[in-house]
Amino acid sequence: MVWNPWRGCKRYSEGCLHCYIHKGDLKRGVNTEEIVKTKDFYKPIERNKNGEYKMKSGLCYLCFQSDFLIEEADEWRKEAFKMIKERSDCDFLFLTKRIDRFNKCIPDDWNDGYDNVIVSCTIENQKQADYRLPIFNSLPIKHKLLSVQPLIENINIEKYLDGIECVVLGGESDKDGRILDYDWVLNVREQCIRKNVSFEFRQCGTNFLKDGRLYRIRTFDLTKQARLANINFHSNK
Predict the structure, then answer these.
(1) Could you give the C-alpha distances from 34 to 8, 42, 121, 125, 217, in angstroms and in order?
(2) Percent of the chain with pLDDT over 90
(3) I want to staple 106 with a disulfide (CB 3.0 to 4.6 A). Which of 8, 21, 110, 179 is the partner?
(4) Which residues are CB-neighbours of 63 under 8 A, at least 6 positions away?
(5) 221 by DSSP, 3-state: which?
(6) Exposed, middle or buried, 36 (CB in 10 Å: 0-12/13-18/19+)?
(7) What local confidence, expressed as pLDDT, does residue 45 receive?
(8) What would the pLDDT profile of 42-96 be if each residue is shown by its tens digit?
(9) Which residue in 114, 155, 119 sits closest to 136, CA to CA?
(10) What mean pLDDT is reported for the chain?
């Protein structure tokens, strides 16, 4: 399931250069810089004629057309959190590059975190890892994931992996996308294995370097090729 209570975003750091949200909006003639509520804002609590929730129980991908912690949504987020708390039968997963805003955005009853909220901090290079991950490690969140997407350089994050449940890694999807070196992927994977943290190789980059050879991979083959690598690691924790 997907719930996008608002849409629109603003480029924030190096990983945003070829953002899929901006590219998709450009094709549709939509101004991505305009952050607005969507018609689905109340989707989690809408009910049918029988009084049952229309949105089924299970995992819900939250705010994948924006950043859940973006400043322009501050006035709407409190109400969104009320719906999240009401739907305790759903697990809400959101990604953010704005993890340094987290404490300004949580509700008064957050305490040590909601059981049904999964937060994935996004990083793309060593600079952002060294800035965002110490903040992320310090926050009261029950379920923490790490999104290394798009990875644009080799990184060392092993010291930040305590308390992380899974690391998801991917390359950049764009004809002009920056190269993803397979050695970088394997390096992050080894760090996860040493810390017994699950690792998922989500997608290759359009421009993918392996064994000294540069491959050009079609967009619809990026996830397939990552699966074929068969390098995912499942923690026994």
Answers:
(1) 6, 20, 23, 27, 32
(2) 89
(3) 110
(4) 3, 4, 5, 6, 94
(5) helix
(6) middle
(7) 98
(8) 999 999 999 999 999 999 999 999 999 999 999 999 999 999 999 999 999 999 9
(9) 119
(10) 96
State how far the Cα of 80 lies from the Cα of 96, in Å rounded to an integer: 16
| Mean pLDDT confidence for 186-206 | 98
- Distance, CA of 234 to CA of 199 (rounded, Å): 7
Q: Are 226 and 197 in contact (CB under 8 A)?
A: no
- pLDDT tens, residue by residue, 207-217: 999 999 999 99
Q: Determine the residue type at 94.
A: F
**Which residue, among 106, 149, 22, 27, has the nearest Cα to 7 in the 3D structure?**
22
What helix, strand, coil percent values describe the chain, rounded to 5? Answer: 35, 25, 45
SS3 24: helix
**Which position has the token pair 């089924």?**
56
| Cα–Cα distance, 144 to 195 (Å, whole number) | 15
pLDDT for res 30: 80
The token pair at 138 is 């310090």
Locate tokens 């379920």: which residue? 143
Token pair for 34: 């305009």
